[in-house]
Amino acid sequence: MLQSAGIPGLICILIIALIVVGSSKSPELGKVVGITLKEFKKSTRELVSEDEAKEDKND
Predict the structure, then answer these.
(1) Which of UniProt's keywords are assigned here (predicted)?
(2) How many structural domains compose the chain?
């Protein structure tokens, strides 16, 4: 079974990513990740609001 990595796992992944990408590209990578998370949250909110609207119509 897969388990959550938690904070230590996340830190380890970030350190490995920093080594692979390099310190010069890390600000760009952070910006891209931030934009991606923002779009993901926006899409999730839209899906939830659509589901709530469908439930309201069915009631």
Answers:
(1) Membrane, Protein transport, Translocation, Transmembrane, Transmembrane helix, Transport
(2) 1
